[in-house]
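Following up on my earlier thread - several people asked me to post the actual chain instead of describing it. Fair enough. Here it is, all 200 residues.
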Amino acid sequence: MNQSVASQIDSRRHPRRQRTGRPRSGPVLLALLALLVAVLGAACSSSGHHPAAAKASTSTTRPNTVLVAMGADPELATFLTALRLGTPAGTLAGAGPYTVLAPTNHAFAALAPSTIAPVDPAGKQKLVKIIDGHILAGGAAGQPLSVGKATTASGATITVARSGDNLIVTDAQGHSAKVTKTLRSGNGLVYVVDGVLLPS
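Reply from S.P.:
Thanks for posting it. Predicted structure:
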């Protein structure tokens, strides 16, 4: 049998020997990648969160500042807006420590709109007094609320009393607010209250 005939017979018996170059692994790799993406997607869907979000949600680290702590609570959106409008940038962002009485959105909604709207210099000055009246000063700054009297950053005096299991804060005009919860941060404490303390 001559060489050319033998080659033809061999090629028929072993057709794969005629293929040259590297194996075509592209489709296989794409299929594996698609499977990996599908598995990871199913895992994320079953947990209801992105892995990074899940890690963040289980963190027990305190917020860096009272501003961050309040920003994470949607009930305090109005107070934060008033704070930004009425005080210089960076207020409550320093080392502290601070103790803040933060009225809820509902507490502000009960006030007349003009009470906190800085429509003119006089209005802004009043807003500043309201905000400062919710930040404790002196020896009370950074300390847990305790029964007795305390001075605020506006110079006003407030009274803290206990009624059953609740702490009640009262301003000089007799407006009272109940503490509903406490937020802790790296530079102070935030006491969420259900009323707005007003300057005299």
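Residues 3-57 form one domain. That should answer part of your original question.
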